[in-house]
């Protein structure tokens, strides 16, 4: 039985959309009938990731499309999100391809575990530039575009924060503050952009098995310990964020939701002692 398509006619942009959470959201948006633009770094090793995304996107579109169309349903755009001009260029490419921007997911981020006393300025700068400054620049570019739009006006901006915005992490002293910053950014932009009918919300994933923590979670003892702290008894998967991201993107489901934070953590936060 085909699922109802909740994002038909929507144009969605996602940063860091070739891997992990961003990729899962991008494919789910396509499944729900949206047109999707994916930003990626553009590194030499991105080519196989782009090819894999193209394959999976084509399958999703073929399986879920209720109307056959020759129109392009998605694009990929390279660019380093830590640079102020990348967000502007990404939004420009989206509008050139699809005419507008309805949903923007600020997802791109890095997480390299390190002891606090050993963190070098270069690692702190890189983490802040990508996770927080990149989110700011990209969100600002998306907000500017959405503020100009009519028929319908506005849009939805979703920041991928983290449970780490609410709790500390021994080897994440450079990372947790950036995720707290994204939560604050979404709260602040919800106030600033509400007059344009732009909704801004944050998703806070718990421990999600992605390429960012794969090595760390490969430690069986640590993985078992983490699973034991989660009421649902398992680590999260990137697809666990896709449904909440559809909810926040859909005017049918969340038209009066802005400035909110939604934990997607299997209950980990309420079980922390």
UniProtKB/TrEMBL annotation:
Domain of life: Eukaryota
Keyword annotations of the record: NADP, Oxidoreductase, Rhamnose metabolism
GO biological process per UniProt: fatty acid biosynthetic process; rhamnose catabolic process
Database matches in InterPro entries: NAD(P)-bd_dom_sf (IPR036291), SDR_fam (IPR002347)
Annotated GO MF terms: oxidoreductase activity, acting on the CH-OH group of donors, NAD or NADP as acceptor; quinone binding
Keyword Oxidoreductase in annotation: yes
Record bears the keyword Oxidoreductase: yes
Pfam families: adh_short_C2
Family as reported in the entry's similarity comment: Belongs to the short-chain dehydrogenases/reductases (SDR) family.
PANTHER family from the UniProt entry: (3R)-3-HYDROXYACYL-COA DEHYDROGENASE (PTHR42760:SF83), SHORT-CHAIN DEHYDROGENASES/REDUCTASES FAMILY MEMBER (PTHR42760)
Name assigned to this protein: Alcohol dehydrogenase
Originating species: Talaromyces proteolyticus
């Amino acid at each position: 039985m085909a699922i109802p398509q909740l994002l038909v006619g929507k144009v969605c942009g996602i940063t860091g959309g070739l891997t992990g959470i961003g990729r899962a959201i991008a494919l789910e948006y396509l499944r729900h009938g949206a047109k999707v633009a994916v930003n990626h770094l553009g590194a030499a090793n991105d080519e196989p990731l782009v090819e894999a995304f193209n394959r999976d996107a084509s399958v999703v579109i073929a399986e879920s499309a209720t109307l056959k169309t020759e129109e392009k349903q998605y694009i990929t755009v390279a660019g380093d999100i830590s640079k102020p001009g990348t967000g502007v260029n990404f939004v420009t490419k989206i509008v050139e391809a699809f005419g507008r921007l309805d949903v923007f997911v600020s997802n791109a981020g890095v997480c390299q575990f390190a002891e606090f006393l050993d963190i070098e300025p270069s690692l702190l700068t890189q983490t802040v530039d990508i996770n927080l400054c990149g989110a700011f620049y990209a969100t600002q570019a998306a907000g500017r575009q959405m503020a100009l739009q009519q028929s319908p006006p506005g849009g939805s901006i979703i920041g991928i924060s983290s449970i780490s915005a609410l709790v500390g992490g021994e080897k994440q002293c450079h990372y947790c503050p950036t995720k707290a910053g994204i939560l604050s950014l979404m709260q602040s932009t919800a106030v600033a952009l509400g007059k344009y009918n732009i909704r801004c919300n944050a998703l806070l994933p718990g421990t999600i098995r992605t390429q960012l923590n794969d090595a760390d979670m490969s430690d069986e003892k640590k993985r078992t310990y983490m699973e034991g702290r989660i009421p649902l008894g398992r680590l999260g998967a990137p697809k666990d964020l896709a449904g909440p991201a559809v909810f926040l993107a859909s005017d049918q489901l969340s038209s009066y939701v802005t400035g909110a934070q939604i934990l997607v953590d299997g209950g980990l936060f309420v079980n922390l002692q």
